[in-house]
Amino acid sequence: MPLPLSGKTALVTGVSRRKGIGFAVATELATLGASVFIHHHRAHDLAQPWGADDLGAVRDGLAAALTPDAVMGDHAAELSDSATIEPLLDAASAMTGTLDILVCNQAMSGSDGSIFDMVPERLDPHWQVNARATLLLTAGLARRRREAEVTDAARPGDRGSSGRPFERPTGHVIWMTSGQTHGPMRGEVAYATSKAALAGVTSTVAAELLDVGLVLNTVNPGPVNTGYLDPESTDRDLSWVPDFLANTPFGRFGRPDDPARLIGWLCTDAGSWVVGQVLTTDGGFALR
Question: Residue 59: which residues within 8 A CB-CB, separation 6 or more?
Answer without folding.
Answer: 72, 74
